[in-house]
Amino acid sequence: MLGPAVKSDCDMTPFTVGLLTVLLMTAGPAVAEDKKPARVVLPTVKIEKGEQCVEPTDEMRRNHMNMILHQRDRTVHEGIRTVKHSLKNCIDCHANPKTNSVIGKDGFCASCHTYAAVSMDCFECHSPSPRKDAAGGKPATSRLDMQRDQLQRVTAPKPLAAGAPVKGAVP
Amino acid sequence: MSLNRRQFIGLGAVAAAGAVLAPALKLIDLVQARSPDEAVTALKRWGLLIDTVKCVDCDVCVTACHEENGVTGHGRPATDAQWIRKVGLRDKRTGHVQTLPLMCQHCEEPPCVDVCPTGASFKRADGIVLVDKHTCIGCRYCMMACPYKARSFIHEVVTDQKPDVPRGKGTVESCTLCVHRVDRGEIPACVEACTKDGGQAMLFGDLNDRGSAIYQRLRAEPSSQIRPDLALNTGVRYQGL
Questions:
Q1: Which chain A residue lies closest to B217 (C-alpha atoms)?
Q2: What's the whole-model pTM score?
Q3: Are B81 and B188 in a shared domain?
Q4: Same domain, B23 and B81
Q5: CB-CB: which of A77, A146, A167 is closest to B122?
Q6: Structure letter (DSSP) for residue B205
């Protein structure tokens, strides 16, 4: 009798310990969330501009890296510069107005990536600040205008034909 | 109902007009700006024509390029990045000096692309030779392969980049023909500066477009490539060398 009883006791103990561990683990974060301990710095997810991102929030949280990756190859190799999924578009909306940046302590990108312990190297090359003319960039001149200007320049009766090398050389 | 003579001739005239006009419309289409979601195609080949006779003793092209692309130095000429530089040529017998801007020549057969082990150095369909810094490992084979010494290596951490021009330590870079501007339908910064403040020595355009100014000039006037013996078919051509 003693043998089986001990055996069954041994069977139970790991199970109980396991159960308790699971309970504790699930309870842990809930408790932590309530008290908000200062040890873990939570990300600053503050949306500065606009009400809606380019995709639903869940989609953005899970897949923003794929969108940026896909767009990056299309832009660099094929010259496709659609704004919607571009890194510049992210930065234009999400830059912190105080620091004018998406990195740094309260930066939209950096704070969440620090929290998730996922390193990103976008900003070793890319500027973390929005474009200066992000609000109202001047409209690009069309290629036709460009060609026409250059054609006019060429067909015009040589403006610098006399070889005057510097403008305003003669007072 | 069969066609009478008059109707037949009328239809024939319409068809003939269509046949004549269609290619012309096609040409106009090619000249107009590409929409941002359209990929570049080999129908275009961007190029530069530099008239060294008009190239005066100034460096507005260099300044404009480095300003546009956020290329800053550390006061160390041996290692600082140079996307475009002025080169002086002196005839030893006559002492005649001429200067010309030298940058990536955007070859049709780029040696930098041949040697790149990761495929980071590549030629875009429209002829612009670029470095994909996402895949560049900084081995600098391309710098050794380039006969024009057009490429630079970034030795130090870069900050304050231009949003349109990402630059970072450990990668190779060179003239992009201001690809971000070209994709917007603008001309490169050096050409704009030279036209405005310099000697009006630079002309940018599509080498494939028979209607473009650069095509017509190249067709009508003599021009040369630097190191034509290498048969790289450069996109940058010079006059007066």
A1: A154
A2: 0.73
A3: yes
A4: no
A5: A77
A6: E
